[in-house]
Amino acid sequence: MERFDLGRLHPGSRGTFGLPVMHMPDGNELWLPVLAAAGQADGPTLAVLAGVHGDEYEGVRAIPQALRAIDLAELRGRVIAVPVCNLPAYRTATRSSPIDGLNLARVFPGDPHGTVTQRIAHVLTERVIAPASLLIDLHSAGVAYSMPTLVGYPHADTPLAAAAREAALAFGCEVLWAHPPDPSATGRSISAAEALGIPWIYTEAAGGGRALPADVACYAGGVLNVMRHLGMLPGQPERRPLRCHLLGAGNTDAPIRVDHSGYFVSDVALLDRVTEGQAIGQVLDFAGEPLERIRANRNGLVAMIRGLPAIHAGEGAFLLTGEMPGAPGQL
Which of 81, 123, 155, 192 has the fewest CB atoms inside 10 Å of its own CB, making it the most exposed? Predict the structure, then answer.
């Protein structure tokens, strides 16, 4: 496989390349796959990532679909896309790396002298994110959780946040999630982009260890929509009516956790409105008797629900967030 070098990507070309990370104990070199395309005319550089977690598959399928749909004669600028960022985790269908146990989405901008996950983050930051005019990171809820199909973006009074918001609107999802600055949300690819002054958006979807065709189509179409918005492709983004506009922290490391192990049952659906103290789920024993009633820790909307029924004490069950004032569907 040809080594990826953005400087040698010829105008009017596209290809599949490899991005070397490190040599493994068996002597083979770990390479990340890169799909790239360059137009004949100058324009922005769009970076697209997927497979940061090894159990999230929608973006893995959507990236090649989007790249194949690009007419090079119409393209202005360049696209750099990595369909599987975390190859070790992808090979074992796990969220974190089976080699060093690290979550790639918590170690950006990485370390060139660190463990395999830290080195992957470093290579992605330096070779893919840093040259970009905008970053799109395609995520989903993975095997353990379920989330609505949405686009997240930074919510602040800055030019970077304003550019990100416009890109999020252009992507074409029915649900947006605006995130105010959160000092605890570090180590993400989007954290690395923000530190470099690069606007960013990210996506979430149902997950569950599947890649639903509707979500794949939304992601592939969303990438092309953003390219139209940036002037990289002709035409206007194909927007959908906005159904829900969430506002609040999106830190999935801080969900509502349970105190008992057992069988988890949700009594609410995604995007339901709940009030603080409301019973929203249960943990049952093998006889079907309740061990614990899970209650909302705030007023808000349900942004994430655990998808696996078996649950251990201390694991997350729900994530709640707020809503943008005047948002669509607000009562």
Answer: 155
